[in-house]
Amino acid sequence: MRILSGMQPSGIAHLGNYLGAMRQHIERTKNEQNECFYFLANYHALTTVKDKKKLEEMTLNLAMDYIALGIDNDNTAFFKQSDVPEHTELCWIFNCITHMGFLERAHAWKDAKEKGKKEMSAGLFIYPILQAADILIYKPNLVPVGQDQKQHIEMSRDIAEKFNQTWGETFPLPEPLIEKSVAVVPGTDGEKMSKSYGNTIEMFAEEKVLKSQVMTIKTDSTPLESPKNPDTCNVFKLYKLLATESEIKLMRENYLKGGYGYGHAKTTLFEKILEYFQDAREKRKKLENNKNYVEEVLKKGALKARKVAEQTIKEVREKCGL
Ligand code: ADP
Ligand code: TRP
Question: Could you count the other beta carbons within 10 Å of the beta carbon of residue 229?
């Protein structure tokens, strides 16, 4: 099974990114039957990040997050998108068969327009085409992503079909893989956890910062001694995504019996996050002092990825008459 996914280095990784996307990326690398391609989508990040230092830093940080979580396996190519320029070549060819009307229907573009975003660049407009190129160039079977990326995968399928109709059968249609149990991870305010809403919990933050993020989770005003409803509480919702069956059962009982405050629940959640990410946090600290190693992993990954990307581009050029 060939598996592919990408993540934009456009901010600090948070529990929503991990539970919605990164966790399944890493899980898939553990099956030796799988051949995995995972990349840091820095060309995509360029649509929003224009500060050179910031982009470099965020790319390296996200690379360290992934490596600390265990992505670097023999059956995996982990790389920077910009180290495989074939992605942008294929994007150009797809540009030539994609209608403007099709792109105008993209949620992300419509949202940006409605919100009156300042910079409506051509790059932002063709964002889904570059994503289609990222995916199709490796002809993967499965693309594990969060729920919000579903439309982009559907658009990639449409673009693949258009190419196949125009120049002959070339690209198999990729399937999205969305972990239903964690479709949307709530942030500290109960809305979708997202960098752009300032409601994130960052699993690699310093302990103090992490604790203060957990402590700001919004709860209702039920008094300490009263029974509480776990199913409407954001603390419990997050705990459920990380804890074991028996730990979840215990917290549920504590909520229902009363005399258990939200402060208790938050402390338990904070400790759970520390425990869950303990190994990764330690590994991440060591990587901070060994950035050359991180660069090497990415270079090695790019070499692997390029072998496949070059083959596809050769085939595409021939089919198109280039
Ligand atoms: P953000 O909203 O913080 O900018 P991104 O859009 O960069 O995050 O998302 C990167 C990946 O993480 C995507 O695959 C997305 O589906 C997933 N993801 C982000 N936030 C969440 C969330 N709150 N719940 C589930 N998945 C999420
Ligand atoms: N658009 C994706 C996101 O914001 C990142 C991405 C770029 C991607 N290219 C991809 C995801 C290819 C999956 C496949 O999360």
Answer: 11
pLDDT digits (tens, 9 = 90+) for 22-42: 999 999 999 999 999 999 999
Q: Same domain for 166 and 235?
A: no
Q: Is 9 in the pocket of ligand 1 (CB under 6 A)?
A: no
Ligand nearest to the CA of 137: 2
Atom 5 (ligand 2) nearest CA? 7
Residues 20 and 141 in one domain: yes
pLDDT tens-digit readout, 163-196:
999 999 999 999 999 877 776 899 999 999 998 8
Nearest CA to ligand 1 atom 6: 194
Say if residue 173 is in the same domain as residue 227: no
User: Rounded to an integer, what distance in angstroms lies between the CA atom of residue 220 and that of residue 99?
Assistant: 48
Evaluate: CB of 20 within 6 angstroms of ligand 1.
Answer: yes
Ligand 1 neighbourhood includes 185 CB (under 6 angstroms): yes
pTM of the complete model beyond 0.85: yes
The tokens 């409407």 sit on which residue? 232
Nearest CA to ligand 1 atom 2: 194
Ligand 2: centre distance to CA 264 (Å) = 37
The verdict on 305 and 241 lying in the same domain is: no
CATH number at residue 213: 1.10.240.10
* Number of structural domains found in the chain: 2
Rounded Cα distance, 62 and 235, in Å: 26
Catalytic positions: 113, 192, 195
On the 0-12 / 13-18 / 19+ scale of CB atoms within 10 A, 207 is exposed
